[in-house]
Each structure stands twice: as C-alpha cells, then as structure tokens.
C-alpha cells in the first residue's frame, strides 16, 4: 500500500498536520510568546462570541458585542472566553453594522446544534485553514514547481501573523485565501 503513496501525497498530509498544529496551538512557538498568541491583538473575537450569545437568546445570530460597564472585566483580555462559556450577557447588545457576520451565523448554528465550545470552534477554523493551505500546495503545482509550491504553503503555515489569527472566529482568516483558487 505504501508504494502507492507518492511524495505529493505525503507532502500534502505533512502540510495539513504541520499547519493544523501551528494554527491551533502555535506548535513551534513561531507566533511569539503564548501571551501574544492567546490574546487576540484586535480583541475582535468577542464580537463573534457575544453575537452567538445574543443569537441563542433572541434567535438571530448577529455580529456585535454587549456593553459591559464593569472595568475589571476589560483588564483581562481573555475574559470574553469566560463570558462565552457561561453565556454571560451584558447590559445592551450593540450590533456591528459594517459587516454581515456570516461567521457568527455559521458558528452560532454549530454551537446551538452541537454544543461546541470556543476551543471546538477554533479547531474547526484551524482544520479548514489547514486544508486550504495544503490545497495551495496542490493547486500551485499547475504553474510552479513542487519546491516552489511547497515553500509557499510552508511560508503561510509558519507566518507569525497568520498563526496569531488563524483560529480566530471573528476574522476567519482562511476565507481571505479563497479568492486565490479563482485564478
């Protein structure tokens, strides 16, 4: 059976596992310290988690955030994770109107129907992005060599800024790369 597995297949599998480990857990610590990796630099993920909490309550998953006036809550940049796990609402939900919020609708339904926690949603994001990164390797070989295609995919899978945002359910970084498949 192993004689039928070629170098391209092994490379695809390696890229998938390598990128999954980097995207979901900063495996090689490429994205700097764990604090840098674990604390979203934009603090935007709360717009998705609060939108899911709001949707569970009101039936409509929207991008936005609750106003929470307790300043102590904002001194801990990871407090939103606790809000999400415990479904802690704020005083008023403020809809984010500059974006449709497809990610909130998608991940909200996954959470609602399957009870997925934030780590599970991060893992789903990482799996999708790892698959896309691995597909780059295959897709680019139409116009580039094996080595060039592999280096491009490895560059994405080991980029500190990509890794820092890869699992984030607000920015769904994998979606930024989809237009490359239209070329």
Helix-strand blueprint:
Blueprint: H1 7-25, H2 34-38, H3 45-58, E1 64-66, H4 71-75, H5 79-86, E2 93-95, H6 102-114, H7 118-140, H8 146-157, H9 160-165
Antiparallel strand pairs: 1-2
Helix pairs in contact: 1-7, 1-8, 3-5, 3-6, 7-8
Q: Approximately how much helix is present in the residues?
A: 55-70%
What is the number of E strands?
Answer: 2
Order of helices and strands: HHHEHHEHHHH
Class based on secondary structure composition and strand pairing: mainly alpha
Describe this entry's structure for a reader.
The protein is mainly alpha-helical. 57% of the residues lie in helices and 3% in strands. It is built from 9 helices and 2 strands, in the order αααβααβαααα. It has a two-stranded antiparallel sheet. The longest helix has 23 residues, at 118-140. The two termini are 35 Å apart. The model has no long low-confidence stretch (mean pLDDT 89).
Concise description?
With 183 residues, the chain is mainly alpha-helical. The protein contains 9 helices and 2 strands; from the N terminus they run αααβααβαααα.
List keywords for this structure.
2 strands, mainly alpha, two-stranded antiparallel ribbon, 183 residues
């Amino acid at each position: 059976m192993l004689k039928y597995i070629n170098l391209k297949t092994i490379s695809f599998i390696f890229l998938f596992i390598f990128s999954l480990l980097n995207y979901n857990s900063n495996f090689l610590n490429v994205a700097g310290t764990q604090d840098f990796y674990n604390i979203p630099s934009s603090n935007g993920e709360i717009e998705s988690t609060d939108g899911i909490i709001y949707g569970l309550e009101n039936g409509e998953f929207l991008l936005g955030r609750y106003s929470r006036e307790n300043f102590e809550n904002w001194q801990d940049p990871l407090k939103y994770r606790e809000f999400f796990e415990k479904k802690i609402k704020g005083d008023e939900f403020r809809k984010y109107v500059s974006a449709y919020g497809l990610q909130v609708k998608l991940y909200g339904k996954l959470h609602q129907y399957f009870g997925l926690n934030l780590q599970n949603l991060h893992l789903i994001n990482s799996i999708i992005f790892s698959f896309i990164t691995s597909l780059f390797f295959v897709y680019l070989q139409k116009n580039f060599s094996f080595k060039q295609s592999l280096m491009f995919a490895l560059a994405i899978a080991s980029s500190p800024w990509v890794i820092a945002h890869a699992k984030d359910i607000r920015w769904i970084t994998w979606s930024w790369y989809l237009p490359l498949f239209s070329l």
